[in-house]
Amino acid sequence: MIEPRLASGVLISAIKRILEAEGDFATVLKKGDAVSGAILLIGQVRGANPKLYERYPALDGQSAWQTIDLKESNGVAVQDYWKKRCARDPDLWVFELDVASGARLDRLLTMFI
Q1: How far apart are CA 38 and CA 35, in angstroms?
Q2: Which residues contact 23 (CB under 8 A, 6 or more apart)?
């Protein structure tokens, strides 16, 4: 049985509010479908080393964040990747986080599965 999940727009809003309350930065680069749009997350620590994550359904019906590995992990490669993805999936959300530490980013990823 598949468990109900939060609508994409609600999840994005919740993550953004928590980050900003902790002094971090979050911004929506592209809005997708408010209910069921896939979410592509760009996570970086203090503006450096951007990493891409996407939420995929797991075998148990839940969701999990998976890292997307690029040959080069720099701002240009990340931007090229998400723009190409948006061209193929107009419902895709692109959400960028800039946090104070890698541990905080990891905590957020496990909090919002």
Answers
A1: 9
A2: 100
Tens digit of each residue's pLDDT, the chain (113 residues): 556 778 899 999 998 999 999 899 999 999 999 998 899 999 999 988 899 999 877 777 677 888 998 887 778 899 999 999 999 999 999 999 999 999 988 888 888 76
Domain ranges in the chain are 23-44+54-111
How wide is the angle at C-alpha 43 spanned by C-alphas 14 and 29, nearest 5°?
Answer: 65
Question: How many Å separate Cα 107 from the centre of its chain?
Answer: 13
CA distance 96 to 94: 7
**Can you say whether residue 70 is alpha, beta or left, with left for phi > 0 and alpha for psi between -120 and 50 degrees?**
beta
CATH class, domain 23-44+54-111, is alpha beta
Q: Are 16 and 112 in contact (CB under 8 A)?
A: no
